[in-house]
């Protein structure tokens, strides 16, 4: 019964070698085309005093939509308890600046996962694509091998973890594992992870998958700070890292081609009061050649259609004029046959049904379906043994 | 006697405690020994039950079979047997002995990189011209050789139109190449005055040449038809597989009224579209299970800018602005009811511009006006712009125009959509003929039979490789988490997927392309279902430490006590027994 750590380690190492030797020749690097962009925006806090995290996420949502990513390719996860909170002085409005110029909750905000649905499990399910059958299509991350994904997370974090809704944590190895599985199934071509929490850079320290570029608002041991307090609303309304990110994007539009390098180098440690650390060792393209619209905007490769498929209509007309007369009678005959086979099926099904019932009854009596039954048998035999022995020795 | 022994035992222990400790007069009692040892034994007997009841249910996955099949597929990729035969219906004397070898060489010379789904081809040449009948080259089997006696075909061909010749040759091929009719590609060579090459919509082509003695040109023409068209579909670019991982594709047709206050158009897509597209969907059934749906949307403006062109008196959208044409914020296209999570949805949009930008044309990258006024986005779908008639006239009435898209216009739009569908599947929308004498016939199914064969081959190969790599990832994932529950459903899906993959492979070698395509779709769908099963979540498995933490707080103290008690009792019993035995021995000695 004792666990065999050495044995399991050995097995793990062997399986890794085995898998590498299989996977490496399997992953033939045929360069796929960049087709579409997706954005997964996650706010992991709830409660009124975390107003700024929701404002962060909504600001980024607005930016990404303005630059062209449609709602059907954005997964927005929010606790969504700010706009209609009893403490909100401006009901149904969420601001990210004390000048109140922009209402982030104005119109066309589509939240995919709200309230208590924002859990670590749902987040990992979104990333890996393993949903229950009942989850609607709008809650799936339907990316393919040509997608660029922007993953933005904000909330309270620490050394190698991120706190979800005050009850659970997302660990850095969980995130790394999910990204690895995404890469194995080719669910993305490139992934940009942007994290705005305390000690954000530790969250992606365990990543190993290629094609991932990450930036965090602070390094290990540093905190990320909010930008300013809004005296009217009563809480801080935006974080510094996100504030400066938004300032960078306000100058851009759909057609611009500012590079990712200019975004990453625009962060000033003295203004942020922390060091924005980014990791490019897993990413092969040089950052100054990657336009930010590759992740934050929408791209659609278009090819003008040079011609229709001529002759289709003519061929169709000639083919179907002749056959239409014959198919009428044929269709009638086919329908009869279908009916006949259906009734035959049903009678057979009746017999099969009773047989199944009988088998199930037998199985229930004799078969070992339940481990509970085994335990009950075991306990019973123990008690039996004890009583016999006491009776014998009396 | 019983109370005597008990009294004696009582006194003997007292005396034993006081005086000599290695003698006792009575046999030691076994009651306590029995008790403790039976408790210990019952614990030991119960331990397997405990282990079994707390065991993690892991349905066994056939990892060895998966890795062997995937190795096999990678070392020898699936090769589809194709047989090309050239049939000379006019008298022909080849200058070099082996025409078939030169044709095969020509085809091989043009083969680019080994892409998935290539043909493993064999070439044969037959000369069947009335008097003589000569075969040459290799044939897959004797049944695939052309039966001679087709000399009357040349006369029958004379004077017919291309469609008629195609049907005539089809019946000839079906009649004369017995069992291989679906796997053989033929080209008929006839000597005649006006040179033409026509590729039919089944699996044959014919060419009329003036001079059959010029063997290099004959070889190059035959090689072009076989290599570029029958084997590669006339395309150079890479393949697109716009099929969802569960083998379903939803074609979503939308009519967008950009500004309903100018005019509102409706269409009768149900009748016209379904009738026209039904044969196409049927032909593509081995590639994907395709369903169609249609909708009409209002208030759907485009998001790019168009410029007024004085010369054309129309609004023009440049190629540079095409990527921003689709206004995803206002075009609510993704409202499909029938598409499940893993199906692929291809959008086909008809855009009716508003009065302020009508008529609207697209300019191609070369600077000319697009002939179709349409564009595609790979893996997404296509857009076609339809300008309402009379919109260039400035006098608009106050009343709103409500009209139905005329059926002829709808049919023309559907022709454009078929061309776009072909582009989305990686073929050319239409063939740009290399010379005016070259012609490719169109099929009412949207794809000719030889193009369908190419699609089946490509998709089968892709599906097989994809499903094997998915199964491989799944088995490494399951192995790396030794305490993760693997449900029976997953095991079943993996088994069925492997079975389908094996079936597909055997069908490939037999040359049954559509059956192998269907099996490969099934294999991929099942493999993806198994991999994306919702119960495989790495955060919900119990580690060994977890297991210990649950059971040890009870079992550690209890088992300690039980063991100690048993050990102590056994030791005491044997000590007492030895005392009793020495007593008996001393009694025997003394008596």
Task: Give a verbal description of the structure.
Chain B: It is found in: Endoplasmic reticulum membrane. The complex is a heterodimer of chains A (394) and B (591). By secondary structure, chain A is an alpha/beta fold. Chain A is 41% helix and 15% strand. Chain A has ten helices and 13 strands. In chain A, α2 runs parallel beside α5. In chain B, the strands form four sheets. In chain B, strands 3-2-1-4-6-5-17 form a seven-stranded mixed beta sheet, with helices on both faces. In chain B, β2 (119-129) and β3 (132-137) form a beta hairpin. Mean pLDDT of chain B is 83; it is low at 1-19. At the A-B interface, α1, α3, α4, β13 and α9 of A face α2, α3, β14, α9 and α10 of B.
Q: How many E-type strands of chain A?
A: 13
Strand line-up of the largest beta sheet of chain A? 3-2-1-4-8-9-12
Major β-sheet of chain A, in short? 7 strands, mixed
* Greatest contact between two chains: A-B, 87 and 92 residues
